[in-house]
Amino acid sequence: MTEYRLTPLAQSLPATVPFVGPETQERNMGRQFDARLGANENVFGPSPHAIKAMAEAGHWMYGDPESHDLRQALATHHGTTPDHIIVGEGIDGLLGYVVRLFVEQGDAVVTSDGAYPTFNYHVAGFGGGLHKVPYKDDHEDPAALFAKAAEVDAKLVYLANPDNPMGSWHKGEDIAAALERLPARSLLVLDEAYVETAPEGTALPLAWGDPRVIRMRTFSKAYGMAGARVGYAIAAPELITAFHKVRNHFGMNRAAQAGAVAALADQAWLAVVKDRIAQARIQIAQIGRDNGLMPLPSATNFVTLDCGSDAAFAKAILDGLVARGIFVRMPFVAPQNRCIRVSCGTNADHAAFAAALPAAIAAAKKG
Amino acid sequence: MTEYRLTPLAQSLPATVPFVGPETQERNMGRQFDARLGANENVFGPSPHAIKAMAEAGHWMYGDPESHDLRQALATHHGTTPDHIIVGEGIDGLLGYVVRLFVEQGDAVVTSDGAYPTFNYHVAGFGGGLHKVPYKDDHEDPAALFAKAAEVDAKLVYLANPDNPMGSWHKGEDIAAALERLPARSLLVLDEAYVETAPEGTALPLAWGDPRVIRMRTFSKAYGMAGARVGYAIAAPELITAFHKVRNHFGMNRAAQAGAVAALADQAWLAVVKDRIAQARIQIAQIGRDNGLMPLPSATNFVTLDCGSDAAFAKAILDGLVARGIFVRMPFVAPQNRCIRVSCGTNADHAAFAAALPAAIAAAKKG
Q1: In this predicted model, what pLDDT tens digit does every residue of A194-222 receive, in sequence order?
Q2: Same domain membership, residue A194 and residue A79
Q3: pLDDT at B1 > cutoff 50
Q4: CB–CB contact A44 B60 (8 Å)
Q5: What residues of chain A, 146 to 185, have a C-beta less than 8 Å from chain B?
Q6: Contact of A17 with B249, CB cutoff 8 Å
Q7: How confident is the model over B212-246, as pLDDT tens digits?
Q8: pLDDT tens track for B180-193
Q9: Does B272 share its domain with B259?
């Protein structure tokens, strides 16, 4: 075996995946899942106009490296200008870029213990030092995050609103008020991936007024296009410009660009999907209650169910569900890992979940 | 304006784009190009089966982070195993990953002066020091590249075969022979993006036998799927594993994965496209000759035309073509920049090119 001269940092990194995909689990099990409720995908899918636009895209041409039409449409939608917007290969891709721009070995970064692991993966990947604060009553805790940022002189602070994996949320005005405590030289990475399914007033009202905030949005959730890989960020133009120094300029799929433009234009479809998601949350919550699990309030396209005991019990229920063909996931960190997390599905998905859950719980109780 | 705390490296980087997209040029001109012959796209497009597969993909689901089915199909196609293969967001994305894995500030990297600028962009982006050797008779020069690698203790050496922007190529066996001079601890990044359109025997015959070589391939050229963003690399499993430490695991577009599987399975379509490309090369060469430009031999889906003078003259012809609605590009570096580069198009594209070229040359001669 050749000894490859990886950088010391690369050598030190584990070759681990933040999430194991459902397809991997299916291959390992030798069967397909009956219900795919683990990745917070949106089974109601994209606007028919978006599907059509993607099918009709000229696949032979590279995408526009400026994502001009999409940035223009997003700017109009959000009441800003395109120089405030960067489009990238999903929020995951954009998180990688922002971490790369800010973090080198030893730089401090703050997040919540149990928040999005892919952000942590990027921070580790560039040698940053992660400082974590606990959730507070199943909510991320902006005051604690910003206090920790001051304490460790954090370059970046990550906050998801609404939160994944708990589904909880803060009012945008409360986050705006908490920003007074954000250190002047820290950048808040505000992940609003789920904001379209949240109550009015959840999005940060400051909009792009505060240059210390970069907001992440996506077409993967409410817009139903997870497979297309279209995320975007909204920030001050000076910060947006920095992305051009490191991004994969021709990295965007051309059909996905066209699909996102069409999806954004079809707000009527988005309204239909939001209604279906709201109905699905009620169904999942009821299935949980019927089986003695306590649903947490959700502003997202999933419902987190408190299994009422410890991580081992929740994991046993999760394993029982997976063994019965129901793909779900669960939080990674205590005390949130007393829960399982169930994405909104179709009525058929929920019926399959409801059919499998009693036996999964019974088996978990036997131990 | 806030002073963002970018890393010193990020601060030092220019916010420049390796290539300006044709859409940007069109927006600046206020008109569409009549012929899109500048980005070495494949106007004949993907297999109809690939188009169908992309249209029917479940856009609401994330792609398989392992690209399992595609890696399996590629392994079978190349007579290897999937652990030798990594799939990524185009060769551009994979080049970014390999540079990130190997290069930190001050590390030496070797390439040809005038070779692929996006590779150089990635090297600069991670702080590497680029050492360049000249082309030799419009060919990249493996012996000189490997000698330079020994001299500067290069971690990476970049070589494209066939070459872009000159369209020239080496026999695979000649590159294999030259590998004797590659330093034991240098990694050769062999970009074979255009190999499907090259004569038999152009691909490196050593295949994955030499762990000092990583080969890059793509669905963007002969397979006609530039918009889909599917590249792959073939290397020793120990090296492939390292990619999992840094890549965007859920970065692949799900439809693109399915499309690539279908495209690979349709080798009959590939044969049709290769034939059309061969015919197109003959047409472009003839148009060049008819106008006093000397076509260089090409193993790619483009023809480089020697304009017979200096860079200023070639640039004037290029500008004249662009002004007349013909999108073409040219090499960046002397003496290759005495040429313009014309991608294979349809008969209509070539007719538009042939119609515009005499006036573009005449205007260039006037100065």
Answers
A1: 999 999 999 998 665 799 999 999 999 99
A2: yes
A3: no
A4: yes
A5: 155, 185
A6: yes
A7: 999 999 999 999 999 999 999 999 999 999 999 99
A8: 999 999 999 999 99
A9: no
φ/ψ (deg, to 5) at B43 = -65, -15
Domain boundary among the residues A246, A266, A286 is at A266
Residue B243, both tokens: 């990619």
Q: Chain-centre distance of CA A358, in angstroms?
A: 29
Which pLDDT value is given to residue A208?
Answer: 59
B54, A58: Cβ pair inside 8 Å? no
Q: pLDDT per residue over A279-294, tens digit each?
A: 999 999 999 999 999 9
Neighbours of B148 (CB within 10 A): 19
- Answer whether B19 sits within 8 Å of A58, measured CB to CB: no
Least CB–CB distance from A92: residue in B43, B100, B251: B251
Calpha distance A89→B99 (Å, rounded): 19
Helix (H) or strand (E) holding B274: helix B267-290
Instruction: Give the pLDDT confidence of B250-296 residue by residue, as tens digits.
Output: 999 999 999 999 999 999 999 999 999 999 999 999 999 999 999 99
Is the distance from CB of A161 to CB of A195 less than 8 angstroms? yes
Number of alpha carbons in the 13 Å side-chain half-sphere of residue B228: 36
Rounded (to 5) percent helix, strand, coil in chain B: 45, 15, 40
The rounded distance, in Å, linking the Cα atoms of A106 and A111 is 16
Is the pLDDT at A18 greater than 80? The verdict is no
Neighbours of B365 (CB within 10 A): 12
pLDDT of B206: 67
Q: Which of B36, B185, B227 sits opposite A5 (nearest CB)?
A: B185
* Domain count within chain B: 2
End residue of a domain, out of A235, A251, A266: A266
pLDDT tens for each residue of B108-160: 999 999 999 999 999 999 999 999 999 999 999 999 999 999 999 999 999 99
Q: Is the peptide bond before B165 cis (omega within 30 degrees of 0)?
A: yes
Mark residue B138 as left, alpha or beta (left: phi above 0; alpha: psi -120 to 50; beta: remaining).
Answer: left
pLDDT at B17: 74
User: Is the domain of B135 the same as that of B221?
Assistant: yes
Beta bridge partner(s), residue B160:
B191
User: Are B162 and B277 in a shared domain?
Assistant: no
Identity at B79, one-letter amino acid code = G
Domain ranges, residue A227 = 58-266
CB-CB neighbors (< 8 A) of B251 in chain A: 89-90, 92-93, 229
Give CA–CA dist A309/A289, Å, rounded. 15
- What is the pLDDT averaged over residues A89-97? 98
Contact (CB, 8 A) for A193 and A164: yes
Q: Is B120 helix (H, G, I), strand (E, B) or coil?
A: helix
Count of A-B CB contacts under 8 Å: 266
B41 and A61 in contact by Cβ < 8 A?
yes
Mean confidence (pLDDT) of chain A: 96
